[in-house]
Amino acid sequence: MKTRKIVITGGPGTGKTSVIQALEESGYFCFHEVSRAIIQKAQKEGIDQLFLKEPLLFSEMLLEGRINQHKEAENVEANLVFLDRGVPDVVAYMNYFGNEYPPVFNRVCKEYLYDEIFLLPPWKEIYTSDNERYESYEQAVEIHDHLAQSYSSHGYRPVEVPCGPVDDRVSFILDRLV
Question: What is the CATH code of the structural domain delimited by 4-177?
């Protein structure tokens, strides 16, 4: 059985975590976002914003975490595996911030492939910030555009998930995968 790897992505505050949680509660195997754990670990070590202080190190850690998730997904015995963000997200964020990065970033985007990409659009009504999400809503819109461009430039056609109740968004995603 070939496991289909499905990415749920979008800018900050678009409802990705809620969708992933609902999919998981419905019995689907889901990998959670790796950045929060990296950010929280750095904060415990006294680095408030690792991405701003050392963007390349932070992005290398994200890349490693997302590659590990991709590899782990190969061993999951399920038809569908959902991932909260994929490898091309790292490139999108580096481009958004105008940071330089080595060619390996784009190379691994072509090596670790996904079967489908679902992009959640900015949604002002649900947007909030917290200790790990420091972007404004306007920045979230710009990040969305960089995500769409990153996935498109790596050969994907992201499917935009309409805004609405979590159950409707999950149904939209699952209906597209049948």
Answer: 3.40.50.300
